[in-house]
Fold this sequence. Notes:
This protein is mainly beta. It has 2 domains: 1-36; 44-486, Neuraminidase (6 Propeller). The protein has helices at residues 2-6, 12-36, and strands at 45-48, 57-63, 71-76, 80-84, 92-94, 104-112, 118-125, 141-148, 160-165, 173-181, 194-201, 206-213, 224-225, 241-247, 253-259, 262-268, 279-283, 288-289, 297-298, 302-305, 321-330, 332-340, 351-352, 364-371, 378-384, 395-401, 409-412, 430-434, 437-444, 471-478. A 4-stranded antiparallel sheet has the order 1-30-29-28, with no helix packed on it. It has a 4-stranded antiparallel sheet with strand order 2-3-4-5, with no helix packed on it. A 4-stranded antiparallel sheet has the order 6-7-8-9, with no helix packed on it. A hairpin with a 7-residue loop joins strand 18 and strand 19.
Amino acid sequence: MLRRLQGSSSRKPRCRIGILPTVVLVAGLITALHAQTRPKAPGATVFPLTSAPGPFTEPSIAINPNNSQQVVAVFQSGVHASYSEDAGDTWHVAEGVAPQNYRVSGDVSAAYDNLGHAFVCYIAFDRLGTFNYWAHNATRNGIFVRRSLDGGKTWEAKQIAVSEYASDPGIPFEDKPYIVSDSRASKSRYAGNLYVGWTRWTLTGSEILLSRSTDDGLTWSRPIEIDRHPGLPRDDNGAAEGFAGAVGPDGRLYAVWSQDNEILLAISRDGGQTFSRAHSIIHTAPIMFAVDTLERANGFPQIAIDPRSIERRSNDPRSPLYVTWTDYRNGDLDVFCSTSDNGGKKWSAPVRVNNDPLHNGADQFFQWLAVDPIDGAANVIFYDRRGDPKNRMQTVTLARSTDSGHTFQNYAWTTEPFEASGVFFGDYSGIAASGGRVYGVWTEKPAVAPQAANKPENKPDTEEPKPRGTIVKVGVADFATAPSGNSH
Length: 488
């Protein structure tokens, strides 16, 4: 058709009109096809951290700032840790990390401090209260940390309480803690500080609290409330939930969380002793949502900073800030990123991180964010359903921005889709990056239960094996050694 139009002199105007939409259409189809078939992440390798399926979810990962060969990954349930001493080429199980004096432990996060010590933070309790109303009939519970002085290989037996409550009527329930470290050795006056933020559920509301340690995690301050006002008392929309934090080169602590369809920000300029009044920086669609096959899902925000100091006219060392989250403003779930280059005062319009076609009915969710402190790239991990027309199966995608969050290249970290039905999938995944080497950690449900291959002959082929739990995997991508065309 194009060749016929181009060959007719009497129809030149129509030729121009006809070619342009066709070329645009073809280009659009090529772009959509490219987005649908993401290139593999450079140097992508994937390792299982669990030898068999079990109740394993909600992983976190961290890199030692003093020795980038050391990486630690933690996950629940209870508390588990694996470590690498060769930049993720091999992984080993760390023994004896879970507490012995509580029946349940989980909601883990990990960090290294400026001494290269590894920390795992977690909650522990005996049983949950009323469904989604955790402070109702709450049993003894608390938030704890444990230390590893050798980068994650061995963990001290001492369990250090950040906040702990005995089993009495009316006690709160501590939930979803996240540990943040000021790991800069010289630039920050608060270098070495550790911070833990979390949601405290009470019978009447939800609060965002923060505690700090100035002595290598051995003792923790009395928690302070940093939200503007409490949220609703149930683990659902309207609650104050999903704390995440980042520390700038000057020691400023930036804290974000979700509440009332808003992402709120509070800033501490004195090492976590006091905070600015929390204020909304981004309006979102509801941050808790239903996803087919999942028991629950959310789009809680993360915040990260490019710590490479940018000299400004006022010699202000503040550096670009990034916030990521997930919501369904476009109908299906998308991952978004907003940035600030003036210390969080103003934020850019949301940028869509996943690059599949808009309104295609495919969900992307459970994102996590890490900005590489060496090369400044923003890296985002998320589950991705663009390859399944039924929107039930997902793979793992790594998105990367090298232009300050204006655009994101999407890479396939995994290519074999898996379903998530019949098991608890948790609330989050994890990611960390240093020097172009990116580490992701996530939960998968095995495609076939281990016993299926040896089923009895009289068992019908149509009977699916019952879910036997989940596994945790860690992925490594290497942009430092990738060809230039794959590094952005």
